[in-house]
Amino acid sequence: MDSTVATGTEEKTWGGGNQPLKASYGKMMMWFFIVSDALTFSGFLAAYGFSRFKFINEWPIADEVFTHVPFLHGQELPMIYVAFMTFILIMSSVTMVLAVDAGHHMNKAKVTIYMFLTIIGGAIFVGSQAWEWATFIQGDYGAVQTKGGNILQFGEYVTVDGVEKFKRVSIDDIAIAQASVRAAHERKNGLWFVDESTLPPYTVSEIYAGLAANENILVRNQLLTEDGHKTVLSREESLKQIKENGKLVVKGANLHVNEYGTTLFADFFFFITGFHGFHVLSGVVINIIIFFNVILGTYERRGSYEMVEKVGLYWHFVDLVWVFVFTFFYLV
Amino acid sequence: MAHEHKLEIFRGLVKFKSNTSKIWGVLIFLTIVTAVEVVLGIYKPEFLMSTWMDPIEGSGFFSTLGNILLSPIVYMKPLNLIFILLTIVKAYYITWDFMHMRDETGSFRKMVVWTAVFLICYLIFILLQEGGYVFNVYNGEDALIKKDF
């Protein structure tokens, strides 16, 4: 500020003395950054839509993928935890806007409290997302991937309250262990320059043996039926598919395989929620910096809490993006 | 520093006494909208699961154009259309009230919002139009892609 050269024209209309938009430079630039970042995110989400078109008849059903809630093991509660995460993020947006409001009244104590609550909200959200990732990576029931890269899952018809339902069965429950000579290739027991990742928990023939032994277990493939469920194959077809097409036993999801269905689903999940999570993380870090500045009285001395407002804009934007990610990943 | 806040939402239907009470009011509204989305997402009412109108027959210019213009109705399930509309409603209130877009000058607001909306619409149009083509490449009658072999 001290080094600004005064030319004597600042007060004149064409010398910068005119502020037609009535917004400071910093705030305006934050808005323009947000516009460009919004385009990045919409590019990702539109690419998700594009890729989903390829597999529109076999895309995984989000309600069947994200069914877990911490501390409630074995219960299928689709959407509940994501809704909770959404609420946490909206709530932290509210505390942020309350901090901005308190800043307008130059109320340091209130700004401090609200900034602190915002940081806590952000931390809870990032933690929840990490948990969501871990659950997704770890997997649920497991599946068999075919030669063509499609996913075959297992289940049986059960009657609950008089309604016949297709209940998923885990590969852990059906696999029959067989003696196998296949060992994981490590650098120490083979070619030193060749490495191999962890072997799948079971071989396809172990799964096939288990399927043959359990008369009631059926296979369902990725294709969606008219009423939006996955196609369940007949008993003969189930055995035939696993025997002829089964190639790899899959548990969980990563960038190469995905037990829930198309691998692209996992790729986009990691990429988009990861990019958003990184935004939340950097938002939390920036919030912490501003929080300490507030405590140290930097803005009190500056005479304006506008920095809180600018960071607040970024934080709200993160919330805004999540609203869209929530819709396109979990609802549509 | 004087900060003027416009305290009316829903086009003046609800007017709050202070900025703080407006924030809480908007929070309640956003929570209700999210709750509606979650309930619809869990129960998926049957009548919202299939489109109410079939695409216009034929492959001429006007039927193609008509299908593009009507694509939210003829190609999209009503449930998904509701989700997207509710999301845009939420985005509006986050931007207008939490990010104080309501209080900015009109030209600044338009500079940010129109630019973003135009470019995002363009992106979506291009990618989804190509997506329809890719769908045919993968799933059409003469598709060269084989699923299992």
List keywords for this structure.
heterodimer; A: 332 residues; alpha+beta; Four Helix Bundle (Hemerythrin (Met), subunit A); 2 domains; 6-stranded antiparallel β-sheet; 54% helix; B: 149 residues; mainly alpha; two-stranded antiparallel sheet; 3% strand
Instruction: Classify the helix fraction of chain B into a percent range.
Output: 55-70%
Average predicted confidence as pLDDT of chain A: 89
Q: Uncertain segments of chain B of ≥5 residues (pLDDT<50)?
A: none
Fill in the CATH topology of the largest domain in chain A: Four Helix Bundle (Hemerythrin (Met), subunit A)
Major β-sheet profile of chain A: 6 strands, antiparallel
Distance between the termini of chain A: 50 Å
How many beta-strand elements of chain A?
6
- Rounded to the nearest angstrom, the radius of gyration of chain B is 21 Å
Strand content of chain B: under 5%
- Class by SSE composition of chain B: mainly alpha
What is the succession of H and E elements of chain B? EEHHHHH
How many strands appear in the DSSP assignment of chain B? 2
Into which percentage range does the β-strand content of chain A fall?
5-15%
Task: Give the largest interface pair and sizes.
Answer: A-B, 63 and 57 residues
Low-confidence stretches of chain A: none
Provide a descriptive summary of the structure in words.
Chain A is of the alpha+beta class. Chain A folds into 2 domains: 22-139 and 264-331, Cytochrome c oxidase, subunit III, four-helix bundle (Four Helix Bundle (Hemerythrin (Met), subunit A), Up-down Bundle), CATH 1.20.120; 144-251, no CATH class. Chain A contains 10 helices and 6 strands; from the N terminus they run ααααβββααββαβααα. Chain A has helices at 25-54, 62-65, 80-104, 108-138, 171-174, 204-213, 235-245, 263-296, 298-302, 306-331; strands at residues 143-146, 151-160, 163-168, 218-224, 230-232, 246-250. In chain A, strands 1, 2, 3, 4, 5 and 6 form a 6-stranded antiparallel β-sheet that branches. In chain A, a hairpin with a 5-residue loop joins strand 4 and strand 5 (230-232). In chain A, helix 1 packs parallel to helix 10 (306-331). The mean pLDDT of chain A is 89. With 149 residues, chain B is an all-alpha fold. Chain B folds into 2 domains: 1-103, no CATH class; 105-149. Chain B contains 5 helices and 2 strands; from the N terminus they run E-E-H-H-H-H-H. A two-stranded antiparallel sheet of chain B has the order 1-2. In chain B, strand 1 and strand 2 (14-15) form a beta hairpin. Chain B is elongated, with a radius of gyration of 21 Å. The N and C termini of chain B lie far apart (71 Å). At the A-B interface, helix 1, helix 3 and helix 10 of A face helix 1, helix 4 and helix 5 of B.
